[in-house]
Design goal:
- This protein is an alpha+beta fold and 269 residues long.
- It folds into 2 domains: 76 residues, Arc Repressor Mutant, subunit A; 168 residues, GAF domain (Beta-Lactamase), CATH 3.30.450.40.
- Helices cover 43% and strands 17% of the residues.
- The strands form 2 sheets. A 6-stranded antiparallel beta sheet has the order 5-4-3-8-7-6, sandwiched between helices.
- The protein starts with 8 loop residues before the first helix and ends in a 14-residue tail after the last helix.
Length: 269
């Protein structure tokens, strides 16, 4: 029986794996990367790296600069990413984890998508309290006075954060942060600890505890939060509440392909 021409199965799988590693590495770089640097970063030889790069260039997934000869992500990969994003349903991915968080703590749970204007509520799950505090899907959570908004702003691109800090911060309640300096310090704390609260800052007597959700490339795509009376979610949440919210956000992120410690630092100094 004749053998189909081509590399052995093991070599073929290795080639596919290397191609994905190259694409993932280039996607995280701000500028182009040369073949030597790529070979060194991915632990292979220049000759092997060059063969993989040539294939990816020919397929349109990466491009090479004529001036610097460095490689960067191509338009075909960008188009593919946009197509995936259009079919991306964070609410569906997070459904099981959101329900588990509600059942563990009993509070209403809110899932939001990160956007430049704030956190857009995708889904809510009512808690077990007799009096329900909730937000409607589609609601926009302000960047400066809600837990979801603060998390979104803390991990946003520097330009977005700077725009908000330079703008007028509307006072919603006597507890709303309206000072850019105070808000900047608050965002630094959010980044350092990985979660945010907003006790009485948007609505008196109400608080939320939110943590960021990251996708595989390390960028924040949303937030998960518990919402309720400040009687039950205090200004300084309990260790149990913080642990459950952080763990839930981590598991949702893992479902999106994110590995701990791989988040891209887009908030700047």
């Amino acid at each position: 029986m004749s053998r189909i021409d081509g590399p052995p199965r093991g070599e073929g799988l290795q080639a596919v794996a290397m191609a994905f590693q190259i694409l993932e590495y280039l996607a995280k770089q701000r500028g182009g990367v040369g073949v030597t640097a790529l070979a060194r970063a991915l632990g292979t030889t220049k000759s092997r790296m060059h063969r993989h790069l040539r294939t990816l260039v020919e397929s349109g997934y990466i491009v090479q600069s004529a001036e610097s000869e460095k490689y960067r992500i191509g338009s075909r990969l960008v188009t593919l990413g946009q197509a995936v994003a259009e079919n991306f349903d964070l609410a569906t991915v997070a459904r099981e984890e959101v329900r588990a968080l509600r059942d563990a703590l009993g509070h209403s749970v809110v899932l939001s998508r990160a956007e430049a204007a704030g956190g857009v509520v995708l889904a809510t799950l009512p808690g077990h309290e007799a009096i329900e505090i909730a937000v409607k899907p589609g609601s926009l959570m302000a960047l400066h006075c809600t837990a979801q908004g603060k998390v979104t702003l803390a991990f946003a691109e520097p330009a977005i954060r700077d725009r908000v800090l330079l703008s007028r911060l509307d006072m919603r309640t006597p507890h709303t942060i309206t000072s850019a300096t105070v808000l900047r310090e608050e965002l630094e704390r959010v980044r350092a600890r990985g979660w945010a609260t907003a006790p009485g800052e948007s609505l008196l007597g109400v608080n939320a505890l939110a943590a960021p959700v990251f996708e595989g490339g390390g960028h924040m795509v949303g937030a998960v939060a518990i919402l309720g009376s400040i009687q039950f979610i205090e200004a300084e949440p309990s260790a149990e509440q913080v642990r459950h919210v952080l763990d839930t956000a981590g598991r949702i992120s893992a479902r999106l392909g994110h590995a701990p410690g791989s988040a891209v630092d887009t908030a700047g100094a």
